[in-house]
Amino acid sequence: MDNESQRLAQQTMAFVLAGGRGSRLYELTDIRAKPAMYFGGKSRIIDFALSNAVNSGIRRIGVATQYKAHSLIRHLQRGWSFFRAERNESLDILPASQQLNNENWYKGTADAVTQNIDIIRGYDPKYIIILAGDHIYKQDYSLMVKHHVDSGADVTVGCIEVPRMEATGFGVMKVDENDKILDFVEKPADPPPMPGHPDMALASMGIYVFETEYLCKLLREDAENPNSAHDFGGDIIPAIVKTGKAVAHPFSRSCVRSGLEEKPYWRDVGTVDAFWQANVDLTDFKPELDLYDNTWPIWTYSELTPPAKFIHNEEGRKGHAVSSMVSGGCIISGSTLDRCLMFTGVRTHSFSELEGVVAMPYVEINRNAKIKNAVIDRGVQIPQGLVVGEDPELDAKRFRRTANGICLITQPMIDKLDM
């Protein structure tokens, strides 16, 4: 990070939108918001946006919460309480509350910021970066803020470069060769290509940089517009594209990569399939996301746990894991694991066989269970002899089974089993 980027980062506040449910994760988000979902063995999804901010030198952060926020707020209090006011650092948790009128809930992403303008103004940041709290990626935001300042933009929009026909589910930017956004189209059937790259398109990451004063003025105008949905992607950004200067910032210019990461990594783990895949991918010999890079740590709440333990060494009853990640506090007792990711405190008992299993914290898998390609929610007790992943019809009756054959298993589903 050069001195100019560092100076700009110190003048910037990060505002993280962390109120979304993530309904396509189904039962996994029944009791927690999507940003509070577990990821990678010990982290939560929101840790990536927060770690990016801290590692970028941005130490003033607000987190707007809404849906089922208790788990998220508890995590922030436990894991992110190291900010010191005397060093001009702060992390504010901003639940939807009666600040402007009698309606508590944030009506849209822009309204979430509008309701907290006074708090933002109290810190007097020159720039503000709006972040989504529910994506997995590593990015140096200071480089994006510098691009914003150097280009003289009214808004800078973070964009990922995706194959053109995969961009139909995103908001897509049509840009000129100087990154100026000419058009912003939501979920287009025929996405506009990038200049010079006809097979690629620029899709919005839900990251925006503004000058704070300019954004406050826009938000006040938007709040008084009865026809607005008060949303950045739907209202604020398209309006600036029409009347001001909106600039696209391709993710490849500021993504953070270790020597092991060959291409920019960004994932929306908003479906059961995507969530399972991104977690299991971490067990690869050379994963696309390097969590072992100490130069860009992913900060989180770390529970005090003993090391993982593997016990028993008899034929057919061997504590054994291959191509797997096993977190602290786990006991792998006479079980075999293949391409599995075990979160904190998981216990597996003798003669159980697991393949492609993502087990959340404190799952217990009892004897003789045989489970393949599954996501198991926190604290679930898998009964003795349960078989998952061999009979698709039976799996679909008992659990939530995706079209790709991944089973989501929760305790209420287990409680209904007739075994």
UniProtKB/TrEMBL annotation:
- In the record, what terms sit under GO molecular function? ATP binding; glucose-1-phosphate adenylyltransferase activity
Gene Ontology biological process: glycogen biosynthetic process
Which InterPro entries does the UniProt record give? Answer: ADP-Glc_PPase, ADP_Glu_pyroP_CS, GlgC_bac, GlmU/GlgC-like_hexapep, NTP_transferase_dom, Nucleotide-diphossugar_trans, Trimer_LpxA-like_sf
Q: What is its EC number?
A: 2.7.7.27
- Among its keywords, does the record have ATP-binding? yes
* Species this chain originates from: Yoonia sediminilitoris
Write down the position(s) of the site called Could play a key role in the communication between the regulatory and the substrate sites.
Answer: 66, 105
> Per UniProt, where does alpha-D-glucose 1-phosphate bind?
106, 171, 186-187, 204
Q: What's the name of the protein?
A: Glucose-1-phosphate adenylyltransferase
